[in-house]
Structures are given as C-alpha cells and as structure tokens.
Amino acid sequence: MTSSAHEDDLAVIDAIHSWCAAIDGRDWAALEALITDPILIDYSSNGTTGGHLAASEWTDRLRVLHGFDKTLHMVSNVRPHVDGDAAICTSYVNAMHFLMDGEEEFHAHACGQYRHDLIRIEGRWRIKGATFLLAGRQGGHKEFDRAFARARELAPQRM
C-alpha cells in the first residue's frame, strides 16, 4: 500500500468517525458539511424509510435524537475500499440511545453493519450514501420502538 493509498484510507475512516461524532453531538451543521446534497439513505432493515434525501431533510429526521439524554454510535471493523475519487466503507455499528424520563429508563440499542458510499469532492471525502443493515436489537423491537416513541414526544421541548 502506498503512502497516498494509506492516507486515503485514513481520511475515509475519519469521515465515518466524524459521521458518528456529529450525530452523537447533535452537530447538524457538521453533519451537513460531511454529506452530499442529496444523500441516499437506506435504513429499511430497521423499519425506517429512506431514499434520496436533501441533506437538511436527513438532519431534520435525526432531530428526534434530541429526545434522548445521550446517544453513542460506535463503529468497529472499519474497512475502507478506495477506488480513485470513490470509496465504500463498511463497518460494524453499535447504536445506543439512552433516556431517563422521571423514574423510567428507556434504551434503544441496535447493532448491525454500516455501508457508507463516499466521493472525493475538491480533495475532501463526503458521504453520498449510508445504509444500515440491522443484525438485531437488544431487548427486541418493542423496547426499541417504545424508546424512540418517547424520544419523539420529548424532542421538540429539548431542542
């Protein structure tokens, strides 16, 4: 592997880490700067519709996360595949969402694989597609859906 190829791999991996950090930090401006407009989103394995979305529409959908006290999107087994100015990066993801509502604790924990499609624009890697392939949800889909329903209710007052 050449130095340039290694640098490309690291830059692609950094983009994926930045995706997770922006989501968990609820830094929608940083996320929009990282993605293309439009972006292709496919979270259908987790029951969410997607398709080609404007960058602002994607970040608007993510605002439900304000309803949670904390989220942690952790990636591992990150494998970039760079081909010129295009790249595909696959990884495992643990997406954990935590909410304490009075005495009641809500958890939404989904595990699976990410596939991010990237393109180099003006020397910078940007994410043009994101797919989440669900492996499973800790506690099952009812607990997951219940936590997200409560987060949706709370999100507007927490933004």
Features:
alpha+beta; 6-stranded mixed beta sheet; 6 strands
Would you give an account of this structure?
- It is a single chain.
- Helix 1 runs antiparallel to helix 2 (28-34).
- The protein has helices at 3-24, 28-34, 55-62, 140-158; strands at residues 35-42, 51-53, 70-83, 86-101, 104-121, 124-138.
- The mean pLDDT is 97.
- The protein has a single domain, classed as Nuclear Transport Factor 2, Chain: A (Roll), CATH 3.10.450.50.
- Helices cover 35% and strands 47% of the residues.
- A hairpin with an 8-residue loop joins strand 1 (35-42) and strand 2 (51-53).
- It is of the alpha+beta class.
Number of strands: 6
Residue share in helices? 25-40%
Structural class: alpha+beta
How much of the sequence is in beta strands? over 45%
Helix run count:
4
Total discrete domains = 1
Using the alpha-carbon principal axes, give the shape: globular
Supply the CATH architecture.
Roll
Average pLDDT reading: 97
CATH topology: Nuclear Transport Factor 2, Chain: A
Order of helices and strands: HHEEHEEEEH
Spans of at least 5 consecutive residues whose pLDDT stays below 50 are: none
Biggest sheet details: 6 strands, mixed
- CA-based gyration radius: 16 Å
Order of strands side by side in the largest beta sheet?
2-1-6-5-4-3
Through-space gap between termini: 45 Å
Highest-level CATH class: Alpha Beta
